[in-house]
Amino acid sequence: MASLPSPHLFPSAEAASKALASEIGELVASRAATGQPVVLGLATGSTPIGLYAELVRLHRNGLSFANVTTFNLDEYLGLPRDHKESYWHFMHDHLFDHLDIPREKIHIPDGSIPEEDLPNYCSEYENAIARSGGIDLQVLGIGRNGHIGFNEPGASSESYTHVTTLNEITIADAADSFGSPQNVPVRAITMGVRTILEARRVVLLAFGKSKAGIIRRALTPGVTSEVPATYLQLHQDVSFFVDEEAGSGLREQLGPE
Ligand code: PGA
Questions:
Q1: What string of DSSP letters covers 151-167?
Q2: Are 205 and 139 a contacting pair, CB within 8 Å?
Q3: pTM
Q4: Active site residue ranges
Q5: Mind listing the pLDDT tens digit for each residue in 7-44?
Q6: Among 92, 94, 166, 238, which is disulfide-ready with 170 (CB 3.0 to 4.6 Å)?
Q7: For residue 100, how far is its CA from the centre of ligand 1 (angstroms)?
Q8: Which value, to the nearest 10 degrees, does the dihedral of the CA atoms of residues 228, 234, 235, 241 take?
Q9: CA-CA distance, 136 to 2, in Å (whole number)?
Q10: 158-206: per-residue pLDDT in tens?
Q11: Distance 41 CA to ligand 1 centre (A)
């Protein structure tokens, strides 16, 4: 039975990022206290940069991430790791180079896998998630078209890690970073919607005015493949952490404060 994810409206992106970083920090510390691992699903894009800066700050203040395993949502196909726009590069730059997560516990889809090996590679990525015990907490951003990971409009709710073709809005939004739309890779490896829905908890971050319309749609009852973020309405433990601007269309849903 579908239920609406709960929106949490924060005064700023910084406040939302700090709240999620504290939640993750408490999870990591409480598991470490009993010798247990934590599995995090991680996202890229401009949105989680503040979250990662805050996790790095927690680490500098003494929190160890040695018990953490990570799985990233997606990666462009055809980009070598050391390309400055690869998500491998992004994650190391913003997070992994600054934490004590053992390198073998970090998983990011490899965009340089040869075509013929991709099906096996994608199933093996899912197997690795399963072997780790499944994702405890998945961090998500959201595209203006409602994508989660690179699950673009039209995505199936039953998909696991797979190769996908990027939507034109996604390409337009990435064009600046790549210098032009022609330079944006057209395909990517992404966790599927089902992979995301199998995480035990999901927190979606959205900041800024450009996300207000899609956040309102994602939180309006009605699940449709045309807006993949609406699939989150099928999950039992999802929170949307939004700043004032991204939440500006939600006033009616939230009611008076
Ligand atoms: P952004 O991208 O954080 O750069 O806005 C989010 C997304 O496309 O998932």
A1: B-TT--TT--SEEEEPP
A2: yes
A3: 0.96
A4: 74, 145, 147, 152
A5: 999 999 999 999 999 999 999 999 999 999 999 999 99
A6: 166
A7: 26
A8: 50
A9: 21
A10: 999 999 999 999 999 999 999 999 999 999 999 999 999 999 999 999 9
A11: 15
